[in-house]
Each structure stands twice: as structure tokens, then as C-alpha cells.
Amino acid sequence: MKRLLLVVVLAFPLFAQIPSPSQHLKLDIGKDRVLADYKQIREYFRALDAASPRVEVETLGKTVLGEEMIMAVISSEENIRNKARIKEIAKRLADPHGLSDAEAERFYREGKAVVLVTCNIHSSEIASSQMAMEWAHALATANDAETKRRLDNVVLLLVPSLNPDGQTMITDYYRKYAGTKYEGGRLPWLYHHYVGHDNNRDWYMLTQPETRALSRAVYHEWNPQLFVDEHQMGSEGPRMFIPPFADPLDPDVHPLIWREVNMVGSNMALRLEQANKSGLIYGYSFDAYWIGGTRNTGWWKNITGLLLETASARIASPVYIEPNELRGGTKGLVDYKATINHPNPWKGGWWRMRDIMDYERIASDALIELAANYREDLLRNLVTRARAAIAYAAPRDAYRIPRDQRDYPTAQHLAWLMNERNVDVRQASNGDYWIPLAQPYSRFILEMMEPQRYPEVKLQPGRDILRPYDVATWTLPLQMGVKVERAPMPEGLTRVTEIKPATKEVIARGEKLARKPKVATYKAWQPSMDEGWTRWLLETYGVSVKGLSAQEIQKGITGFDALILPDMPKDILATGKRRSEGAMKYEEEMPPEYRGALDKSGAEALRKFVDGGGTLIAFGDACEYVIDEFNVPVRNALGGVKPDDYVNPGSLVRLHLRTDHPVTAGMPSETAAFLDSPIAFETTAPASDMQRWVLATYPEDDQDVLLSGWIHGAERLTRKAAAVAMTYGKGKIVLFGFRPQHRGQTHATFPLVFNALWWSVSGP
Ligand SMILES: [Zn+2]
Q1: Cα dihedral 651, 541, 505, 725 sign
Q2: DSSP assignment, residue 685?
Q3: Which H or E run contains 57?
Q4: Which pLDDT value is given to residue 11?
Q5: Distance from Cα 605 to the centre of ligand 1, integer Å
Q6: Cα dihedral sign, 725-728-732-738
Q7: Which among 57, 391, 507, 660 is most buried, taking Cβ atoms within 10 Å?
Q8: Phi, psi at residue 612, to the nearest 5°?
Q9: Parallel, antiparallel, or unpaired for β 562-565 and 615-619?
Q10: Which segments of 283-425 are extended strands (E)?
Q11: Distance from C-alpha of 138 to C-alpha of 158, rounded to nearest angstrom
Q12: Per-residue pLDDT at 728 exceeds 50
């Protein structure tokens, strides 16, 4: 009794000194037009760490621009002291190879629920980065019995911003224009140095340092059982999406994942409804099929992952939504009204960052509550899933990545990637890599190695097939052009500890040339993620590249050998505006320095550049712009196709290549390529002042087109050209209808991009 009293007396004044984020930062956190930037957030978490025995801040790594990424570990004082032991148990349960039932039972009793919450990966979805500080402060200071019970059972890993560089860009831009008519408007560039919004499309390929840093913490260090990623969506729909997810689902994910997702989500919705928060929806928009997002990847690795999406304000400025502006129009809510998955629609009115923070906070507390209530179930279920994954295959059932490859460095990169994902990878003395399937991540390995067959789900007989949220495929051997086979693994191989990726050699053939080409991309004020990925690809492989604005292009393109038009709709390239039928024509005005598109003078400058000897390279949709603006013997055969007659959300297709052209040099005669835009070329014989080469064609038979994913209307691609090169004046044009460097994933077709660049400085 005396000791207890002493603890209380000692603890109380200590806790009383822990400042709230508003006190510490001298900012009214959560108030209209107030934002803490990333440095302030990090500073606050460091202060919490110093003041509270319940909080410890860990460094995850560095961002692209060199910022420190942090994660707060929040739990009871005792759990923080026992951090190493808790991690050890979580790791043992995540890989229960050789774990006896008796041992497992002891760990279920002793172990803690490890719960990861990531905020603000999409930087304009900023409320969660502010909420995280308030939530951490509440957990560090509350002395009620219920909070203490939760913290005794749960270790919370809280990442206040998964994209610190972007958080800084958004707060800087917001502050700069606060109080002007541009307040709360969109950023005129990507909110991640390379990949913008696609930073949440990187979670199996791990191209960016932020992705790799969190992935290490999740799969190598902490092995959480629950993972919640907090986002925001548009302003004119439901107030908050909380799982259950929408169809389709990947039937290869263990069903206990969905049972836990639904249980956690239902508890969040219950607590929000009890707090009179309206506008909650489930079974909406976001599906259970796609693997690329933060928490999604975990589904195949036995981790229960949830996505939260709250309606947005204008960054930290409030919005007023008229009731008639509220709309559905998406899978799970066609018309804006009460439905079983949306029983209490929000009625319209003011919506502010404070509202978003309040919704997020209630949901986040409900997560911790449930994790504390079901701590033992969560640990038990994880082991059930991991054991089922191990039992999936016989001990020698494995994938072999042979040493004998057309492109060994890329094969090695695939082995590196799997090892980085904490997959058990082994190597034989002849250099072959082996990936056994009897391991906890067998579902993930299968998902990565095998072609996707899209689950064609209909909600009523005779109705449409539900479309996927994102792309329909991710098969690594096809995307990367690596030969992988399923075969019995030799005995006695041990796990590799490190694989050094040898990626720089992949595109080395260009180094034989006398000089490197000088390369520019078009960097529009309507930022294109494909432009960012292009810069990422070229810089990663040692080619420097300059992004040119519309204004710079209009002045005349000099000093460059090649210019790349990234995948963007032709109207956006030409005018900066979308021209689709019936669409809202209103667009917010940007500040004068960030306005404009290529327009007439930009198109003229591009023609002059090519006429004078430059090489113009277009990806995906941008090909249509070139077809419109240049007199080329090419048309898009899918240009007028009705949306229901041809559907391809993003699939891997088979291409036949000619191999006697500089752009296809060194390529195999057949490859997989990633196609999403409705683009397939027809060409015609040009006049004698021009040469044109069909570089790649789709197969004759429509059954041969699709390699992985889902295409409705594949017969429309047969015998069409997928890539075309031509001379034009003194210069050259190369059109890639597919996406040769899509999201930094399509290694199989990377060489085409580099070859096209080398072609710009070599003969015709
Ligand atoms: Zn988002």
C-alpha cells in the first residue's frame, strides 16, 4: 500500500509536467487555419519522449530529402521497460516454426498486442498528423483505470507522418497562401519528391526510402498484429470510410484477416455512432483485392490491416457543403442516401480539420480498446494464420530463381526484394536463389510470383463485374522479366542474410556510347506521378534529368537531346483542363506563377525541337497528344472506344518485339508489359521523307494477349502496335502506348526507356 502511494505521489507531478502539443508548440492545434509542420511534430514527440515514461521515440530512417522519420512507441511504463521482450515474443509468434503448443500458450499470456498506426502518408490528408500529437499526449497523461488497462495490454506504434517531406511541402504552401484567395488550394507539384500520391503504391516494390524504412520496422523489427493507416478522401461524400472493405477480395488471404478487420472496424463505427458522428460507411470504394498499399501488403503476411478514410476540409481551412452537393457515385454508394452500409448520412454544413481529427481520434481509441479486449485472440489468430501458411507446402516445395538468366542483376534484385520483405531466401553454391514455400509468408510469395486472375464479382445476377480499386496485377517475374520456376529445393541450403542488389548494371549498355544524352521531362503544374517516376528511374540509374515547366518549354527547348512527355491525358497536356463530357468545368485558379499548360506555343516549341534534331518520347496517354499535334502516320485504334466495350484497370500483356532496332536492342523477342490506358496503335506507310518502325505488337490471338490481371475486350488489342518509333524532320519520335517504367516496377521494359534515350544521341 505504502509503495503504491509512493508511486502515485511520484508519478503525478511528473505527468503534470507533460505539456500538451498546443502548450509546447504555442499553437492552437486543431483550430481553423493552424498547422504544425513536421519539424514541430517531431520536436513535440521528442519532448513527450523526454517527459513521459510511457513514450519512446524511435528513428525509422531518412526520407528522400534527408528528413528523419520517427515512430513513437507508446505503452505502459512497464511495457516500455520490457520492450525487447515484447518484440521477441511478437517475432516468435509471427514465425512459429518449431514453436510448441505449450510455449505458444505461455506467449499468449505474456505477449502484448502490438498495434501500428500510420498517419499522413498522403501529405494533403493532413489532419492525422495533428491528431497524432493530441492522441499521444492523452495516452501519455491519462490516469483513469481504462486507459491504464489498455496500455497494459497494448503496445502502440504511432507514425505521425509517413511522408515528412510532403508534410513540410503542404504546410509551407498552406502558410504561404493563408489569407489569400488561394488558401487551402492544391499543391502545383508532387507532395513526394519522386512519386507523389503513389507513395502508397510502393509497398511490394519498396523503391522509396520511406517505404523501405517502415517495411523494416514492420516485418523485421516489430511484427505487429494490427496495422491501421489513416487517410482522407473527397469532401462531398460520406464522412468516414471504416472497413469492412468492398468487394472483390483476394480469396488467398486467410479469412481470419477479414474477421478481425470487420471486428475492429465495427467497434470503431460503434464508438463513433455513440458519439453522434454521422456519415460512416463501410463496403465502399476500397477493395480487399489490391496488394500495393501500406497495410494491404500485410494481409498476405498475416497482419490484419485497416484503412480509414475521412472526408477532407481544405487542408486546415473549413469547407461548407450544401446538402445537394453530397454525392455517392462510387462502388458501395451509387446515390447519396441511407443504405445498410451507410445508415446515418451526414446532412451537410461546415466541415473542418477539427472534425476530421475528432473522427480519427475516436476511431483510433476504439482500435486500442479492442486490441486490449482481444489481446490474446489477436496473438492466437496470428499464429493460426502463420501455421496455416507454413503448412501450405511440403518442406522442399519452392521457387527457384536460376543463376542462368537473360538479365541476372534484375533476378538478383528480385531475390533482394523478397529478402527485404523478410521472406526466407536461400542460395545454392551455383548461384541459384531458392524461396521455400513452407514459411509464414507463403501467401505473399505466391501472390508475388503467380499471375493474377481477377475475381469477377457481381452483386446481382446479370449486373456488371465490380471494378478493382487500383490495378489488377503485380506478378513480379513477368513485370521484371525474370525467369522463375517452381521446383523441389535441394537439401541443406541456409537462409541468406544479405543480398546486394546490382541494379546499376542493368542499363549499362548505354555507357558504351560516347556521351550520355541530355534529358528533360515536361513537369506540368498539374503534377504527374508518372513524371516523378520517370525522374526516379533515370536518376536511380545515373542519368540526370531536368523537369521543364510549360513556360520553359514555350521559350524554346535548347540544350537537350531528348524530352519525355510522361503519361498524362492529352487535354491536360494541351490546356491544363479536363474536357470530358458533362464534367464540372469550374476549376480553382492557381497562383499566377503556377498557371498554364503547353498551349499552342508549347506545341510549336516541341515541333521545332524535334524538327531540329531532338527526340520526343511519350508514355501512355501522352501519345495521343503527340498524335494530335504532330503529323505522324499513327492513330489510336482505341481512341473512340466506349468505356464499357474495353476495360483494363492495369494488366500485364504480351508483346512481340522486333529486336533489330536501337530502341529494342538487347530485348527478348517477347516480353510482358504493363498496360492501363486505352491505347493501341494503327500505323500507315509514310511519305519518303519519313521512316517508321513498329517496335512492339500485340499477339494475333486475343487469348494470348493477357498475361496477368483483367481485360474486358482484349480482342481490340490484337495485331495492333504497342510501341512505334519514327523519324521526324532531323529528329525522332518514340511512342510507348503502354507504361514502360510504371511505378518503378516494370523492370522488364526499363531498357526500352534507356534505349530510346541512347537513340537520341546515336544515328537513325
Ligand atoms: Zn490517401
Answers
A1: positive
A2: P
A3: strand 55-62
A4: 45
A5: 37
A6: negative
A7: 507
A8: -85, 0
A9: parallel
A10: 287-288, 304-311, 319-321, 349-351, 397-401
A11: 13
A12: yes
